[in-house]
Design a protein that fits this description.
Blueprint lengths: L8 E6 L6 H14 L4 E5 L13 H7 L4 E5 L4 E5 L9 H6 L6 E5 L8 E5 L16 E6 L10 E3 L3 H12 L4
Parallel strand pairs: 1-5, 1-6, 2-5, 6-7, 7-8
Antiparallel strand pairs: 3-4
Helix pairs in contact: 1-4
Protein name: Molybdopterin-guanine dinucleotide biosynthesis protein B
GO molecular function, one term: GTP binding
Organism: Sinorhizobium meliloti CCNWSX0020
């Protein structure tokens, strides 16, 4: 399905901490790849993070001052880019670095102007709805009844219906 000359479709999952974003993301990646799509993901973190282990060779390369460190094996490769005080790259800059694919699913990036679904869980500490102030939220996925919205509402665990919605909204099913 992947056409390297066609830009990928983009769809986001937004929500507050512990709203079910990551679980939905994982289920959607699994379902969309099962349907034959090549899927890439972007996860935005609002905090410092590290995917490297202290003491590993690649960690030592970064600590020594390397701008980018690439780790390559027969099963995968990863490139770590140290910002070293430079501004966080824009969403578009990150998107441009991805290999060609059919669909890019985004977790986080609440304010990006891309179609997205809002994840909501009743047990989430922060429960203020995002949808009323974000015109790019196309639907809500929740583990509880949602009233006072004109948007489609899905059960947070109904991955197949949400995947159907993603196909429709992004035009993947054309």
């Amino acid at each position: 399905m992947n056409d390297p000359l066609r830009p990928p479709k983009i769809f986001g999952i937004a929500g507050w901490k512990n709203s079910g974003k990551t679980g939905l993301m994982v289920r959607l990646v699994s379902e969309m790849t099962r349907r034959g799509y090549m899927v890439s993901t972007i996860k935005h973190a609002h905090h410092d993070f590290d995917i490297d282990k202290v003491g590993a060779d690649s960690y030592r390369h970064r600590e020594a001052g390397a701008h980018e460190v690439t780790i390559v094996s027969s099963t995968r490769f990863a490139i770590m880019h140290e910002l070293r005080g430079a501004p966080e790259p824009t969403f578009e800059e990150i998107l441009s670095r991805l290999a060609p694919c059919d669909l890019v699913l985004i977790e986080g990036y609440k304010r990006e102007p891309v179609p997205k679904i809002e994840a909501r869980r009743e047990e989430s500490a922060h429960r203020e709805p995002l949808a009323p102030s974000d015109p790019h939220i196309m639907a809500i996925a929740a583990d509880h009844p949602v009233a006072d919205t004109g948007l489609p509402v899905f059960d947070l665990d109904d991955t197949q219906a949400i995947a159907d919605f993603v196909e429709k909204v992004t035009g993947l099913r054309d």
